[in-house]
């Protein structure tokens, strides 16, 4: 039996698990990736398996992260049956048709407004794909065995998550002996919830694949009612509107039920409740049809009123009905999808209601990284929707009391309901820290071997020894954040693309798929014959074949094949079981790729140095060295396990590869040195001797973008006459539009500097910026227009922005410390040009002026672009008159308006002093 993970591994979305046994390939779930753009892009890549080779598909439930990829899979060629519970089949039609509609509408809107980055925006799938998909569904009732093949039978057990949700119990027979009992948890529901039943006890199993959405957390012990009572009451008293983004299936019904009960009991005043979601309305009708599968019994109260369709609850299906809600004031409640603010009607309500401080946004579920909901939790002051940035002035709160996912305590309880606990557990469908924490807890509490698989990882399941890694897959988190070298991608976008490309070449291949691959591609894939069997590891986060931990020539023996590249400290995960740091959640499996690259760079560097020193590279040995595994005493059966434990321990990890160690407080001085040294060496290697520093606001965009934003706000005002908040936003947008001319000035100046530098010396007067959007993007773009180099010095921030795309690859750096970044800005600077901007611009400007004033830095020309702005921003003459600076300090800068004026001011400064603008900058400034 072989099991591979093509989603829901290293991330909380995109669940897709491929089970291969007896020549039959069965896919469990076909979820869509959500959240971060780099993950969403995976939906557009062909899967790592051939859809036409899949024989069966089992669906646990209909949430998009488990079922949303189904139409795309059919589009790619899947033609087998889709087995699920009857309620799941009915909900699937609602969710998938709605998802197709949203895909098509978003594509049309993007094409209409022109904000798609593609020439023509197209949907991931359309309604025709959904129609084909629904024909493949075959409902199977709970608790009935389904024979998929002579080797495999399965049945669905109620998971208590949403209506129709199921865990999948499988019996797998391969050869003689007892069957290998396996359970796929799907999403495990909670205990004692008002709508859904408790999850069925975990069936007896040898192997468990368990979700970990809340594997590292516990839900708030305070009830949902108690959390919302006062905030909702205050909002209603102010005449505000409560917005509740909610999942259409399960969450919307639950929220409505609780709110109506609170209003009927007097805990909240009676206000209208609007369910603005055709999908939620249709899903509620399905709930009414399957009353025996949830806690509402006959769904009718003693008064003859439907508990699912109570009075004062208004259901909206059409767009016209949805638009009419926008004209209604408060107090009222609007419930609409999607729950993570990723799309749907909630975005239109947010665009109208978020700028009003009287309103309240209530998040009632998990918010995946990269979603708008998560950005709000991270402190975002604006949310971009339909091409416009909407300011966040409304209050917001987040509540986890109604989550449909079991938390850490409930998951552990559920696992312990089995008559016998599983021997092996794959912990999936969670962010890395959540999965690592749950893995550590399961190992400590039930003694099972817990594995946190990575994306595209492959395991052979031995009935006696358990899972044996074949391919460790890709650590999503590391590939998103690690800066590559030796040809590795440098920007987050490139790194994400590399991840996507790699994922499309990993995983099990059908014979047909392999035949289509180029010979070079097949040749470069790791051979299974080189991997060797892996010894059981205490934690899957540290599992890894010898071939993946070392090169094939130096591979460890099978008995000690755990990777030593990246064992993680379990301190933060709550156990010493080697489950991985909850903070970093790295793993030996996922870091094999980067560590191999690091090792190769080390070998290349050593070889290069030997050659430069006059020595010759070492010749390959004719007789390979013996295996490094020592001879074990015959009577000591635990010796191999103890050696394995030593290899897995964090202490055995190489110091330069141990990110936990390098990130500790004791190594701050080392990080300071590295922050200085890495860019210094790279810039020297590029022979960059002098730079022109350009700074300015990130919010100063191209005129056409500023104009679109202004027009969007004006369009909103048409239906909201007298809205003072919106009128103020429009006034600000007008001023931003007026300053947008400086985007073009910065771009022109980047061109001027680069053209002059190319004529004088290609490695001097290189434009350097803070690497972000706005003015910095424009200056880098100007250099890019001429084919010249330019530099970006980015900084690590809680809400770090991507580098702009016009920086020269290899010359974009990210700093941990502001002080070191400032040093690099001025180390080679021949001039500083400051455009209108905010605190960051002022910080760099005043730091430079202070260094010049105190003669810590040799004088350089400082040009302020936009005299009216700078005169209004600060008054240097006033400071001199007040005696806090000297009169001569007023002349430390000059003003300019155009690119030619800036360049002339810089040249004039050097000419007046008899200095050479093109001479290399001093190398000993600091």
UniProtKB/TrEMBL annotation:
Kindly indicate whether the keyword Hydrolase belongs to this entry.
yes
- Region (Disordered) location: 482-633
What keywords sit in the KW lines? Hydrolase
Looking at the record, the residues that make up the Beta-Casp domain are 252-376
State where composition is biased (Low complexity).
Answer: 537-565, 572-588
Biological process per Gene Ontology, one example term: cytokinin biosynthetic process
Record field: compositional bias (Basic and acidic residues): 593-611
Where is the Metallo-beta-lactamase domain positioned along the sequence?
13-219
| SUPFAM superfamilies for the chain | MCP/YpsA-like, Metallo-hydrolase/oxidoreductase
Could you identify this protein by its name?
A: TIGR00730 family Rossman fold protein
Species the sequence originates in: Eiseniibacteriota bacterium
